[in-house]
Amino acid sequence: MSVTIEVPNTPVRPHKRGVNWEKWGWIYMRVSGIALIVLIFGHLFVNLMVGDGVKAIDFAFVAGKLTNPFWIVWDTAMLWLALIHGANGMRTIVNDYATRERTRMILHGALVVSTVALLILGTLTIYAFDPCPAGSPAEHLPSFCGVAG
Asked: Are 111 and 94 in contact (CB under 8 A)?
């Protein structure tokens, strides 16, 4: 009885011509990782070190930040980069461990659906945020809302 051993590093799927998505996914992970380090540490520094620190974080603090276009863009970039970075990492894990093509397709589909849904919901949350909701007590609103109290 003879046993045949596959050649090491033999791809599960044959190599196709065209865009090398694995290469671009690898490059994206490196570039987005560096950008995320800057975005996350900037976010943490502003929220925890500037001003009164963590005890100052409340609705008014977040509302004040989300009225500034700079922080809207900052938070949007952080959201998109982090979600796509995480989804790309999960895609890599699926490719490494899902041996059946059907299983891989189902997992990739679930990953795409969940990533797109979270990107849409997160972006809507950032851009549709109302810092001065009607009917809220004046003591809970930021000072720029102009509520007569």
From this structure: yes
CATH numbers and ranges of domains, the chain: 24-132 (1.20.1300.10)
Other CB atoms within 10 Å distance of the CB of residue 91:
19
Structure tokens at 82: 């982090």
pLDDT digit string (tens) for the chain, length 149 residues: 678 777 777 666 666 788 888 899 999 999 999 999 999 999 999 888 887 878 888 878 888 888 889 999 999 999 999 999 999 999 999 999 999 999 999 999 999 999 999 999 999 999 998 877 777 777 767 777 765 54
pTM of the model: 0.78
Rounded to whole angstroms, the Cα distance separating 87 from 114 reads 9
